[in-house]
Amino acid sequence: MNHLLPKATLLAFLLPAFASAQDQASTMARLCQKADVVVRATVTSSVHPTANLHQLTLQPNQVMKGQLGSSFTLTEPAGQCCGRSLFALSAGQTRILFLKRLGPTLHTLGGGRGVLAATPDLLTHVQALLAAPTTNAIGHLLAANVNHVEPRIADDAALALATLPNLSLTPLERSAVVNSLLQSVQRGWTRTAALADVAARLGDANMVDSVLPVYLDAVREDQALLLRNALKRCPTQLVATRMPAFVGNTRRSNLRAAALLTELPAATAQATMTNLLQRPSHPQVQMHLCEGLLAAGVSSASLSPMVPAAVLQLAVARQNRRPTFRNIQPLR
């Protein structure tokens, strides 16, 4: 028997898989908007009609969006691969599914992100997203969930907030974002990138004051780098002006301050770098601040009274060295 499908039929099965592979970064909020059908359903059978295909028959338990009959089928290429989300499901398992209609057939939307465990928390969250009447309402819902005990919800809420247009949060919601950001930095969670982006988008004085100490005290360099890049997107004059209030006396926080200030526009950061240079600090910190001030056009003669001669000489030498094509900056 010939189990090979005609090319047109095979493409009909493959193209949705390719599309879902491109949709892997979709958040639950985005999936709720894009899906034609959102349903909690139970698998009643799992078969391979050919060696190349995997097919599930499911019974809807709760249709939250769209319309379905008493049962429906989902088909995808067999095997475990990028963009495939049904291979691990078997009869008796229940999932929350985000589905897209392509012609007469239904396909999962968002790859693996569109097939969720049907836990009470996730079900409640999806229902709330579907019920939110406006983008602002969705934003308030997401902010309320950035500290959710279910990591899947907290991670997704942070990512969705970072991509939400016209972000507007209450003071209490801003505090929730900061608390989640602090916890994420302390534990090295991947949601730091999204939360740092949210902080940068809000970017007012209160947010800068909240993020600066988190950045200065971060233990891990990768987390600190995410926060430094976020702070560079905030109003630079505000960041430079508020920096001295949070630096303290530790070598790490002063190095972090110098790293950020030297990456801000010279005219904005010059006064703050001079302020920090006049404080007692580690020679390495002094050297970085001198480099930043030299790059801003301050003469070495002006810096000479503020730092040891050896530190200034090294800063001048580093400033005058020829640029290289290295794209990896070693730890200093």
Folded structure, characterized:
With 332 residues, the protein is α+β, with helices and mostly antiparallel strands. 51% of the residues lie in helices and 14% in strands. It is built from 15 helices and 6 strands. The protein has helices spanning 7-22, 28-34, 120-131, 135-143, 151-163, 171-187, 192-202, 205-217, 221-232, 236-242, 251-261, 266-277, 283-295, 300-303, 309-320, and strands at 37-47, 53-65, 72-77, 94-102, 105-108, 115-117. Strands 1, 2, 3, 4, 5 and 6 form a 6-stranded antiparallel β-sheet that branches. A hairpin with a 6-residue loop joins strand 2 and strand 3. Helix 6 (171-187) runs parallel beside helix 8 (205-217). The longest helix is centred in the middle third of the chain and has 17 residues, at 171-187. The protein is elongated, with a radius of gyration of 27 Å. The chain starts with 6 loop residues before the first helix and ends in a 12-residue tail after the last helix. Mean pLDDT is 87; it is low at 1-24.
